[in-house]
Amino acid sequence: MTAVLEVSNLRKAFGGVIAVDGVSFEVRQGEILGIIGPNGSGKSTLFNCVLGQLQPSAGEVRIDGQVTTGARPCDLNRLGVSRTFQLLQVFPQLSVRDNLILAGQEHQGTMASRLFGSADAGLGAAAAQMIEFFRLSHLAEEQAGSLSYGQQKLLDAAMAFMAGPRLVLLDEPAGGVNLTMLGNLRERLQAYHTEHKATFVVIEHQMEFVMALCTRVLVLAEGRLIAEGAPDEIRRNPIVIEAYLGH
Amino acid sequence: MASFIQLLVSGLATGAIYALIAVGFTLLWQTSQTINFAQGEFVMLPAFFVLAAMNVGAPFWLACLIGIALSIVILGVLFKLIIVDPMLKYGVLPLVISTIALSLFLKESAKDFYSSQAQPFPALVPATDIHFLDAVVSTQSLAVLAVAILTVAGLSILLNKTRLGRQMQATAQNPTLARILGIPVQRMVLYTFLLNAVLVAIASILVSPIYLAKFTNGETLGMAAFIAAIIGGFNQVRGAILGGLILGVLDNLSAAYISSQYRGAFPLIILIAVILLRPQGLLGRLEERTV
Amino acid sequence: MTRLGIVVVALATVAAIVAPFFLKPYGIFLISTWAVLTIAAIGLNLTLGYAGQISLAQGAFVGIGAYTVALLMPLGVPFFLAFLAAGLLCFAVGWGLGYPALRVQHHYLAFVTLAFTTLVFLVLRNEQWLTNGIYGITGTPRPTILGWSTNSARDFYFFCLGILALLSLATWWMLRSPWGRAFVALRENPLRALSLGLDTRRYTLMAFAIGSSLGGLSGALYAPLVQFIEPNSFALGLSFNLLLMVIVGGSGNFFGPFVGALVAVLLPEWLRITQGYYLILYAAAIMVMMAFCPSGLLGLAERATKAFSGRRAGATTTVRTEGAGS
User: How many CB pairs under 8 A join A and C?
Assistant: First the structure.
């Protein structure tokens, strides 16, 4: 069975600084893979290379066996890959509903169908469902910019899921969210995962969040993969502990 | 062959002037994300400062110094404080539009407050001809070349060999990192503006004897600066110098061999060709995609 | 749109329809110019205000449109076809210019369009066999639509107004469709838009091409309006003027071009007393406006109405609770 995501010997250098140094791993269908590591270990750079935001200096990325190294993010999205952002990136001037329709409208149809078709690109029902799922129904027509931080985080996740992706990369989803919201978010992510059999890759700092959500964990330090395994093993791994304490 | 050498020398002279203008433009972009659409008018204006100073009796050399000083104050300090700083918080687009409006403002000001007629401008050296290898080369071209080369050399030493210069370069390449390293970033940015003001003033003094001081000079000179910067690779100082020289030589050669009606078109076609075939310019690198 | 906005637009529409009955021929010429230039400004607004790209070639596209009509009609081509040809030609040229220029960042389109404008001017001036060079082309006839001759000043004004209304409606419809949503995304957060599958390059190019074709259509009306066209009318000055129109009106605002064009057409008349210093004042005003209110006159108006009504437009007051879901 082909892995959903395969990264081989990925390397990214910025001038003299080597941010990612020959990282290889696989993500299997249905997994929730966590990627952790101290600050500066290259997690975000790795993500950005996989997602086409950055050109890797060397190495290969494959989605479902297809080589996608350096492909543009919009092309990856159409292959079924989607992401959330560390810094909130909703569209503040659009309503919650419009944000979601936008998130789905480019995934289907053509430019022409979008111009001459219906104003909501046929996604009205799907958006409503998503709003329900993330429990944002009372905010559907509000401008996204007026939502609270936690609510925007939920919207961010909802937007990533609108196009029905097979692979979702979440960049520090728990960042800056309070505990109540966090439980809510985690529960919704798990529910989506179970319902849609999606595959997740999560970068996160918050240990508890990772351990509770992920089925398998990778540890990065100084651009290299230093450990891999089930959450419990990782938590007890001396190399990992040292990597974190060493900083 | 003889005329080729002539054209080459005068082309290098023009090119050196373009290089000065392009370097200032590139530095502004590098350090403060300022795309200065008024750069051409910045070159047009100091000549008028010089002429005004001469009108009140100053000798040429003094008038030039006054011109450079006024340039530093108005096109350096005032430009930064009044136009660039308030605009930066709105992003690049409003700033570009402001500089477009500024170019119009400066052009009309020169026309209305000085003269709409082309003004003769004194040359650096009396115009005589030197005979060299069967070619006739004007001392003016050589003088321009000499001053321009000296300026570029001085700039190079400043940027590469002095602490101040290296700090300016660091600020240009990575302001966040520079700030962390303790470099006074805001001050470095100011110095870049002052440096640009000096460069355009020198370029103005060099170019006005040839083109005459006219309020419309900004259009062609500005365009030359943009094209030179793009040919060289938009955010490379060395690229701007190379671009300027290449543009100057090609421009001069084309004037001799292409119909004068389309003379102005040649640089434009070079621009479009570069953008089509090698958008990163000669020395630039393909940038990281952020869109 | 707010209720106040609807009222204002309704009043303005009425004013636009009755105005020619109260104006002398020169006045009618001015409002006809306004209608025609608004079309070009709407196009540029699409490029600048919605796709965030600076085009300094809109004046050149107006010129291409004008010359297309001025050259085709004497050959017997009916106005309607020449009009369409102008639009299509400018769309194609816009696409051709934009495609390479938009692959790179750094606002290269601004420089490419700057160069293009100068090139167009040179061609218009030099190729006398085609364009009659600096002597220009006179006497482009005003069309007859289904038996209605638009030759008189008033009739031609209504014709221009009608075309303006049609094109505005088409633009409004485009902005209401998913394309409009895409343009907002493009303007607000191109990075996020990309990750959602939005092909930013394609949409930007489309906005620029459509914007340019609107410039061409504007030019197609300009030729029969002024009935004497020459290369200088379409040089960089017009492109600057159109750019300033969009900015002053309010870039990215649907009605911005209407307001901006009105200001641009009326200002020289009002500032006649300043005897030609008006360009300096205009430019200075732009710089001041950019510093304090980059969203133009309509942005200023929006702020003012918000301040008076005391509510943030668009958002109703709800209690923001942490923890969505009761």
Answer: 116
C219 within domain boundaries: yes
pLDDT at B291: 36
Query: Domain tally for chain C?
Result: 1
For residue B64, give the CATH number of its domain.
1.10.3470
Residue B286 lies inside a defined structural domain of this protein = no
Helix axes C296-309, C256-270, angle to 10 degrees: 110
In a domain, C100, yes or no: yes
Q: Is the pLDDT of residue C320 over 50?
A: no
Residue A230 lies in a domain: yes
Identify whether B290 is part of a domain.
Answer: no
* DSSP per-residue letters across C280-323: HHHHHHHHHHHHH-TTHHHHHHHHHHHHHH-S-TT-------SS
Domain residue limits at A44: 5-94+165-245
Question: Domain range holding C198?
Answer: 24-235
A108: number of Cβ within 10 Å = 15
Q: What's A88's domain CATH number?
A: 3.40.50.300
Comparing CB atoms, the residue among C105, C112, C291 nearest residue B275 is C112
Say if the Cβ atoms of A77 and C195 lie within 8 Å: yes
Statement: residue C315 has pLDDT above 60: no
- The set of chains that have 3 or more CB pairs under 8 A with A is B, C
Whether A120 is covered by a domain: the verdict is no
Lowest mean pLDDT among A204-218, B20-34, C269-283, C294-308: C269-283
Task: Identify from C196, C210, C318, C322 which residue to disrupt to test chain A contact, counting A C-beta atoms within 10 A and taking the largest count.
Answer: C196
| Spatial separation of the C-alpha atoms in residues B200 and B191, rounded to whole Å | 14
- pLDDT tens-place string over residues B46-105: 999 998 888 888 888 898 899 999 999 999 999 998 888 888 777 777 888 889 889 989
Interchain contact, A91 vs C192, CB within 8 Å: yes
Q: How far is CA B265 from CA A128, B172, C173, C212, C217, in A?
A: 56, 33, 40, 22, 26
Alpha-carbon gap, residue B28 to B12, rounded angstroms? 24
Q: Say yes or no: A77 contacts chain C, CB-CB below 8 A.
A: yes
Q: How many CB atoms lie within 10 A of CB C16?
A: 18
> Could you tell me if residue C280 is inside a domain?
no
B262 shares contact with chain C (CB less than 8 Å) = yes
Residue of A nearest to B290 (CA): A53
Whether B285 is covered by a domain: the verdict is: no
Are residues A102 and C195, on separate chains, in Cβ contact within 8 Å?
no
The verdict on a CB contact (< 8 Å) between C290 and B108 is: no
**What pLDDT is recorded for position C29?**
92
C-beta separation of B251 from B266 below 8 A = yes
In a domain, C49, yes or no: yes
Domain count, chain A: 1
Q: How far apart are CA C39 and CA C19, in angstroms?
A: 19
Instruction: Give chain C positions within 8 Å (CB) of B96.
Output: 54, 107, 110
Model confidence pLDDT, tens digit, residues C50-95: 888 889 999 999 999 999 999 999 898 899 999 999 999 999 999 9
Query: Are A69 and A8 in contact, with CB atoms under 8 Å apart?
Result: no
- Residue C175 and residue B32: Cα distance in Å, rounded? 34
Task: Quote the pLDDT of residue B35.
Answer: 86
Return the higher-pLDDT residue of B257 and C264: C264
Instruction: Tell me the pLDDT tens digit for each residue of C162-179.
Output: 999 999 999 999 998 889
Query: Does the distance separating the beta carbons of B96 and C294 come in below 8 Å?
Result: no
Give the count of domains, chain B: 1
Q: Is residue B92 within 8 angstroms of chain C, CB to CB? A: yes
Q: State how far the Cα of C72 lies from the Cα of C59, in Å rounded to an integer.
A: 20
Residue B284 lies in a domain: no
The interface predicted TM-score of the complex, written ipTM, equals 0.82
Question: pLDDT value at position C124?
Answer: 92
